[in-house]
């Protein structure tokens, strides 16, 4: 099963790009972020015509998350994290699909730092960590996937010295991500590409994509039960070069049906 995460940066404005990618790469399950569309404006018909069922949690102009599947029904279990005092921000959706429980998330950016937006990011991260611990305790095959808005290490950011004051690279944020991983999650992309420079986001400015001045901020985290099934993980980097595309590229993994596959890297 191929599962992907993709920050589309506007699901309606980038719909041709999304549909092209779905047709060419045919992921089985996709979590989307930054829909930037209210609930009633999600392009459900176009998505279904492409062969995917969908659930979504929209918000006018900002945020918004969704989950698509072409391998069976999507059984929604939650939208929004427990204890979130600001239910107006659509940042989390959770569902069971084809035997896997998936939490799709769009973690707050947090800039400027310091300030209320940064404090909200840290508080949101704490709620995610608490909820994630419960998911692991369930012993189910679980995945957290989405735009985490954090570069975990220096390897995940072009010229890290330029990002020291940014909320995506702040020590508190990286420490929170490390605490999340320490619960027992596997960072799928790093598990199979431990020493490679891999980015998932390139700004529209300063010719960032051509210079490969990127960030790795989109992650797929696997519970122990799923980590045993990990076969491949990569970034569809070329999608970032398409016309009118998002500033993110899709990130995907392949899971074996059995629990003891031989791991391989994608060439």
UniProtKB/TrEMBL annotation:
Which residues bear the site annotation Transition state stabilizer? Answer: 149
Cofactor info, note text: Probably binds two magnesium or manganese ions per subunit.
Residue intervals of the Endonuclease/exonuclease/phosphatase domain: 4-248
Cofactor dependence: Mn(2+); Mg(2+)
**Site annotated as Interaction with DNA substrate: where?**
248
Identify the keywords attached in UniProt to this record, alphabetized: Hydrolase, Magnesium, Manganese, Metal-binding
Residues holding Mg(2+): 7, 34, 147, 149, 247-248
A Gene Ontology biological process noted in the UniProt record is: DNA repair
Q: Enumerate the SUPFAM superfamilies for this protein.
A: DNase I-like
Q: What class of enzyme is it?
A: hydrolase
Please state the Enzyme Commission number of this protein: 3.1.11.2
Query: Which GO molecular function, any one, fits this protein according to its record?
Result: metal ion binding
**Catalytic residues as annotated in Swiss-Prot or TrEMBL:** 106, 147 (proton donor/acceptor), 248 (proton acceptor)
Pfam family of this protein, just one? Exo_endo_phos
User: Where along the sequence does the record put site: Important for catalytic activity?
Assistant: 218
InterPro entries from the entry? Answer: AP_endonuc_1, AP_endonuclease_F1_BS, AP_endonuclease_F1_CS, Endo/exonu/phosph_ase_sf, Endo/exonuclease/phosphatase, ExoIII-like
Sequence similarity: Belongs to the DNA repair enzymes AP/ExoA family.
Name this protein carries in UniProt? Exodeoxyribonuclease III
Organism the protein comes from: Sphingomonas panacisoli
**What is this organism's lineage?**
Bacteria, Pseudomonadati, Pseudomonadota, Alphaproteobacteria, Sphingomonadales
């Amino acid at each position: 099963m191929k599962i992907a995460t993709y920050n589309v940066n506007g699901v309606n404005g980038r719909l041709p790009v999304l549909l092209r990618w779905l047709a060419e790469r045919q992921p089985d399950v996709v979590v989307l972020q930054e829909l930037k569309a209210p609930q009633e404006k999600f392009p459900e018909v176009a998505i279904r015509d492409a062969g995917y069922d969908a659930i979504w949690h929209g918000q006018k102009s900002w945020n918004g998350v969704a989950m698509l599947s072409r391998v069976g029904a999507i059984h929604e279990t939650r939208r929004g994290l427990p204890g979130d005092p600001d239910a107006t921000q659509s940042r989390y959706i959770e569902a069971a699909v084809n035997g896997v429980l998936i939490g799709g998330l769009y973690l707050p950016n947090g800039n400027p730092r310091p300030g209320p937006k940064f404090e909200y990011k840290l508080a949101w991260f704490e709620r995610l960590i608490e909820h994630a611990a419960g998911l692991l305790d369930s012993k189910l095959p679980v995945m957290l996937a989405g735009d985490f808005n954090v570069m975990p290490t220096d390897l995940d950011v072009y010229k890290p010295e330029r990002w020291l004051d940014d909320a995506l690279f702040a020590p508190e944020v990286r420490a929170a991500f490390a605490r999340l991983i320490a619960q027992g999650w596997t960072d799928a992309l790093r598990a199979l590409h431990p020493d490679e420079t891999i980015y998932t986001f390139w700004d529209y400015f300063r010719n960032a994509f051509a210079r490969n001045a990127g960030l790795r901020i989109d992650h797929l985290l696997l519970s122990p039960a799923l980590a045993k099934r990990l076969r491949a993980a990569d970034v569809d980097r070329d999608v970032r070069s398409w016309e009118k595309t998002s500033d993110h590229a899709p990130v995907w993994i392949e899971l074996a049906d059995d629990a003891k596959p031989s791991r391989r890297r994608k060439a």
